[in-house]
Amino acid sequence: MKPKFNRRKFIHQSSLAAVGLTLASSLSPVLASSKKAVGNRIGIIGLDTSHSVAFTKSLNSPDADQKYKGFKIVAAYPNGSADIESSVKRIPGYIEDVKKLGVEIVSSIDELLKKVDFVLLETNDGRPHLEQAYQVMKAGKPLFVDKPVAASLTDVIAMYSLSASTKVPFFSSSSLRYMETAQEVASGKIGAVLGADCFSPATIEKTHPDLFWYGIHGVEILYTVMGTGCKELSRTSTENTDIVVGTWKDDRIGTFRGTRNGKHDYGGTAYGEKGNMVLGPFKGYDNLLDHIITFFTTGNIQVNPTETIEIYTFMEAADESKRQGGKSVKLEDIKQKHTKLAEQKLKKLNPLP
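RE: above sequence
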């Protein structure tokens, strides 16, 4: 398993590597570590995704106290997407599901924050995530942000900058990162990884960059085994399939295949110096939840922010390649553009306390 990152390392990485030199110069005070949050009350923002119900069932089950160290979902603010029909129509049913598990439904994020110590930002519409995370960070509550981190690379970078400036940590990950086989490869089971081909469904939601909505799962598998360092990529796209080919700085090649027809499945193949390994199957959310609770307990970031930002840069660059008819796109160019946009967007937010 890849090493975890404490707050001090996280702040350094996010301010220098993730946000860029312009933002970093304004965020130097964040190099001081903040105190670890205490308590075990968890709140949910967004009951428009099955993840909210799955996490609540695991944490609030009668035999969960020992495994999850007493952490419970105690309150939820149900509103998430306002206009994505597949999300909105789930909310009434999911409200009833979590109420049966002892969760109080509240009418605002402010009300939620008064009742909890930690937050799961579960809204599967990434467009409001920046504003929602801003409210949580102002209140000093560490949070897990479910996929997608946001609906634009600009907002992803802005959220990590806010985290650094408030010294309120968060991390984000697809549950596919914690497939046993992917973690075995990341831990060195097949030696140094020479390349990988990974796949997942990649259904498209018109309000988000193409791969942010669902392709994130396969891209996260790819980065789990390959690590960071993709320098450029190209994308071939048809109605039912995307193929993204990335070239890493050490000349390794990693590919992502996104599917929109046939059986929905997740996996891939990693090619290593000691042999090859099939990635999969996906067995559920419990491994991710274990890491979320570890984060809440220790304050240690579970996924390096630099890696998460590169994942979203990879997906944004894939959209740019599609716009250019499949031409190769450099990730650094995409990141620099959105770092400047993030800086401009942050200036419009209210001053932080």
